Amino acid sequence: MEDQYYTLIEKQDFYEIIENKYGELAVFIDARSGVPVNPVLEFDGKKTALLKRDQHLAVRLDNIDPETRNVLAESEFVMIVELTGDVVERVYGVPVDNVEKIVFKGRQTRADELVKAKTRAEVLASFGAVKSWTGRIKK
After folding, report:
1. Count of helices and strands (H, E) across the chain
2. Which residues in the chain belong to E strands, given as ranges?
3. Of residues 120 and 81, which shows the higher confidence score?
4. CA 131 to chain CA centroid, nearest Å
5. For the segment 35-71, what is each residue's pLDDT rounded down to a tens digit?
6. Which of 2, 52, 115, 135 lies at 20 to 30 Å from 102 by C-alpha?
7. For the chain, first and last CA: distance in Å?
């Protein structure tokens, strides 16, 4: 049964973007728990990117270096490298989706996190509801 009722957006304070001799990019970030599911990197063409790791967790990359912006905007895919210290936990490729504006949905819970409550329908689907009863006061 699904037990996650919130979507979390974490701010990655330290990250590194590396370009190889072929113009391909790799983004090094802190490892997160769980395996990514259909990840995608949204980029606004300016200074912010959002790695949507799965439907519950996204990682925000702020202040992307001006020199990197054009290369990232022209990339179709980037490689994501998740690290715990110096140990590589996982490596995976993600498509880059250039967007007009990245919209952060949620409320600030800490300096580096945003949490978005799911809709009623999403909670019911996650809970696996098959029946519903409503209490009414008889007049």
Report:
1. 2, 10
2. 6-11, 16-19, 25-30, 40-43, 49-52, 57-61, 77-84, 87-98, 107-110, 113-117
3. 81
4. 33
5. 999 999 999 999 999 998 887 788 888 889 999 999 9
6. 2
7. 38
